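Weekly sync, protein design subgroup
Attendees: M.S., D.O., the rotation student, P.L. (late)

Item 1: inverse folding check
M.S. brought a backbone from last month's batch and wanted to see whether the design step gives back something sensible before we order anything. D.O. pointed out we never logged the input encoding, so this time it goes straight into the notes. Structure tokens as presented (58 positions):
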């Protein structure tokens, strides 16, 4: 069982403009090492990443 987890982060670039790069360079790799953040994407579109069916053309 996993406890004390967060389901997301709110990053505000206009408050800490340099903080986004630092977050991406330090926190994301740590989360990936722990297996709680993806290391690759499942397809080429956002729908694929969210596990949604592709849209069909009319």
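Designed sequence read out in the meeting:
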């Amino acid at each position: 069982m996993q406890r004390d987890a967060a389901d997301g982060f709110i990053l505000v670039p206009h408050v800490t403009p340099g903080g986004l790069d630092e977050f991406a360079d330090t926190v994301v790799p740590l989360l990936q090492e722990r297996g709680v953040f993806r290391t690759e994407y499942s397809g080429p579109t956002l729908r694929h990443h969210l596990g949604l069916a592709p849209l069909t053309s009319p």
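Discussion: The chain is about 35% helix and 0% strand. The helical segments are 19-33, 46-49.
Action: P.L. to compare against the previous round before Friday.
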